[in-house]
Specification:
By secondary structure, the chain is of the alpha/beta class. It has helices at about 40-45, 105-110, 145, 150-160, 180-190, 200-210, 225-230, 245-255, 275-280, 295-305, 325-335; strands spanning about 1-10, 10-15, 25-35, 65, 70-80, 90-95, 95-100, 115, 125-130, 135, 170-175, 195-200, 215-220, 235-240, 255-265, 285-290, 315-320, 340-345. Strands 3, 5, 6, 9, 10, 17 and 18 form a 7-stranded mixed sheet that branches. Helix 4 crosses helix 5 (about 180-190) and helix 4 packs across helix 10 (about 295-305). The relative contact order is 0.16.
Length: about 350
């Protein structure tokens, strides 16, 4: 089969690979669509970060070169002898995360994590072999290109859950890249009444409005904290920092009401100076969110299938696997208006 394989920083090769042997509890998925994640981009530009290039991953025992891709959808092609939940022809998405599974779900994802596409072969390939426990069926009516957004939307839905967002709440999202936009989608699905969105790009802010933001501001032209406090003098109920820079980190805390929650969703590439007294004096609770619980992933299928959920503006480009480097990774590095680029494998809908 054809696959996009990570070898090293700036070294991704589209090549032929053998399909892995199917175990009794495995499912062979014919991949339809796969999304390029910011984590994939980090591995391409700066890696190895999570890629086990020289030392085997502690959960999977594997090391590179590795087939990239952890956001993907497809059709069941074959099942192992002991698989009873799925059959050939089922439309599915894949939860790529492996955890020890020995503790409650809210703790388990922080005690050891592996992922398809980062610690074992993933979905930038014509076929993927996946454990039955990581496969989730989707409605036949859900298009498979749209379904490729289940995984990143699950990240956002978990962050909104960790931010304790309730119906009627006011929230703010700092940074309108793919995860920021999907956080807006998830906050709307959770019942947030007011959703403020901030970014430096008018194009991204327009997408934010299209997917559910009720107020937008380009921070080149205004201060987000003042903008929020004109309407909410004590701040909003929850904020989500999805840009990964100090300016948005500080603004998210300053925009949150006492006893509200500021959630760090972005992966910060650099350390930053921070005095915890800021939290003590403001009464703001700080949280962070990584990945998602299995039930959050499954519930995200429901969110995505809701007629009120609009993710179309987030998909900005569709490309062929052969073009994954130039039209995918290099485009994401050079064109800041891009959000989610999907790779067409089978292209089935």
């Amino acid at each position: 089969m054809k696959a996009a394989v990570w070898y090293d920083r700036k070294d991704i090769r589209v090549e032929e690979r053998n399909i892995k042997t199917l175990k009794d509890t495995d499912v062979l998925v014919k991949v339809a669509w796969a999304g390029i994640c910011g984590t994939d981009l980090h591995e391409y530009e700066l890696g190895p970060i999570f890629m086990p290039k020289d030392t085997p991953n502690e959960i999977t025992g594997e090391m590179g070169p590795m087939v990239l891709g952890h956001e993907f959808s497809g059709i069941v092609e074959q099942v192992g002898d002991n698989v009873l939940t799925f059959k050939k022809g089922d439309k599915v998405v894949v939860n790529p995360v492996y955890t020890p599974g020995k503790l409650p779900a809210e703790i388990d994802r922080y005690t050891g994590l592996g992922s398809l596409g980062l610690h074992t072969d993933g979905g930038f390939a014509e076929y993927a072999v996946v454990s039955e426990t990581n496969v989730v069926q989707i409605p036949d009516s859900m298009p498979l290109d749209k379904a490729a957004l289940v995984e990143p939307l699950a990240v956002a839905a978990q962050a909104v859950k960790d931010g304790n967002v309730k119906p009627g709440d006011a929230v703010a999202v700092f940074g309108c890249g793919p995860i920021g936009l999907l956080t807006i989608v998830a906050a709307k699905a959770a019942g947030a009444k007011e959703i403020y969105a901030f970014d430096l790009s008018d194009e991204k802010l327009e997408k934010a409005r299209e997917v559910g933001a009720t107020q937008i501001l380009n921070t080149k032209t205004g201060d987000p904290v003042s903008f929020i406090k004109e309407k909410h003098p004590f701040g909003v109920d929850a904020t989500f920092e999805a840009a990964g820079v100090k300016a948005t980190f500080d603004a998210s805390i300053a925009s949150t009401r006492p006893t509200g929650t500021a959630v760090i969703v972005a992966v910060h590439a650099k350390n930053l100076d921070f005095n915890p007294v800021v939290l003590m004096l403001s009464g703001v609770k700080m949280s962070s969110s990584l990945g998602y619980e299995p039930e959050t992933f499954k519930d995200t299928v429901r969110i995505l299938n809701d007629a009120n959920t609009n993710v179309d503006p987030i998909i900005t480009k569709r490309i062929k696997l052969d073009d994954v480097v130039e039209e995918g990774f290099e485009t994401l590095l050079s064109d800041m208006t891009q959000a989610k680029i999907l790779i067409q494998l089978s292209g089935q809908l």
